[in-house]
Amino acid sequence: MVQRRRDEDTAVTAEYAFFLAETRGLRFALDYLDNCRIPRDILLRSVDEPERRRRTERRRYPRND
What we know:
This protein has helices spanning 2-23, 26-36, 41-48. By secondary structure, the protein is mainly α. It is globular and about 35 Å long. The mean pLDDT is 78.
């Protein structure tokens, strides 16, 4: 359960960093990720390959929450 919570927090942080990159610039977003102790690769991959950016659940079947 702790891992899932961490993954959800990381996903929210990464989405906000992507928003910051679009509005304030990439450098600002990378500094934000550094402050949150999230790897920069998450943002850099989504900027380099926007078509591979995750929008939906990757699982074959949705979770039962």
